[in-house]
Amino acid sequence: MPIAVTRAVSPTLADCELTHLPRQRIDVARAAAEHLAYEAALRTLGATVVRAPPAPDLPDAVFVEDTAIVLDEIAVIARPGAPSRRPETEAIAGLLQRYRTLARIEAPATLDGGDVLRVGRTLYVGVSSRSNREAVAALTGLLGPWDYRVVAVEVTGCLHLKSAVTEVGDGLLLANPRWVSAGRFAPLEVLPVSDAEPGAANALRIGDAVVFPAHHARTARRLEEAGVRVVPVPCVEIAKAEGGVTCCSLLFETDSLAA
Ligand code: CIR
Question: How far is CA 49 from CA 42, 84, 163, 249, in A?
Fold first, then answer.
């Protein structure tokens, strides 16, 4: 049973962290509507949506992906690189402990979940403005009891590793090769985003489909030509907050009805 943990758009979203984008006016009501459409898309793909308690005073709370890495064996509570985001993790830890044993990333390590791309038993970890090499070492240590391969990947020009590359099918990645070196992922195949859509590499895979921003139509066409089923969602206001489709959920399998 796939679970998708989400968290409501905060009324303070306009005060979000921004790193690579200029601040634009964000229509928070519209962002909330986009988020509802996103949750509906997750449900149509078979996920049970479990909402974490809202955090109206935390502008970036909707981006739950950054607060944890949930694997089959364990959930690792992140230590977000932006200090303003660290208070987001406690409520998520409280929720995830119903499903998994917890471990934590501790200082001086900083890690945003958006920097962790799992492909099979490999975790690619972005070294970015949010996540550091200490986090790569910490994750390697925490996951020692299980057979994961942890691979550091340099990220430049965008916020997170998953802004630059995501998995869209078996053995198939979608990437912006300007932000990450495609060779790092060999022998996986890499489908490049359209040059006109540098921010289009962030897709959320569920089974044989990807949830994907409707405003990246050129890259959507490339995905469909590659045989990937695309489920478009509106994501314009969320994108102004430097968020995308992976950021708004924590997806994992459970056989427990703990929710
Ligand atoms: C931030 O800068 O932290 C938020 N405004 C956006 C976080 C997006 N998260 C993600 O890509 N995983």
Answer: 7, 26, 23, 9
